[in-house]
Amino acid sequence: MEKGLLVVVSGPAGSGKGTVNHILLESPEYAFSVSATTRAPRPGEVDGVNYHYISVEDFQKRIDDDELLEYTCYCGNYYGTLRAQTEAALEAGKNLILEIEVEGALNVKRLCPEAVLIMLLPPSYAVQEQRLRGRATETEEVILRRLERTREEMEFLSHYDYVVYNYDGQAEACADRIRAIVQAEKSAMRRNPNAKKIFFETN
Q: 88: which of 46, 48, 131, 134 is 20 to 30 A away, CA to CA?
């Protein structure tokens, strides 16, 4: 069985990464990495679906036991990717999507150089601001903080393998571009070092 690909999808608020990832997950070839967190569940969230909700003590033990592929502390809570879950999905041939922030993405790339890092962006910074304000769900302070965070994240853009723009009303096309990236990466010679041997030995 062909091993799956570890696909990290990052993107600032308003990039539409949740929508795009949902489209990708409609295909059985893709799976979503459910992160572990120490924060309390929000109304409507389900353990094992949105996050694996665990205590700080449990999270710390998993760090000590090297059970986390990557982790970070954000706004007083820990978030991390479970190593065993990740490895099981990849061995099952699933392309595993990690929807994580820049810090976590760089940690994944350091520990798993074969991972593919994709930055999903709105068409422009101006469009991002329009989308955030159009939600009408956040205070001005929160919007400005998110926009400032975007400026900080863009300083790490060169560490990513690909950038994909999510234009208004084109989430499906955006998902298609990510699918194309995954297929191209799977066909790369560096991922198929035994191609000649397999070619001559396969009946």
A: 46
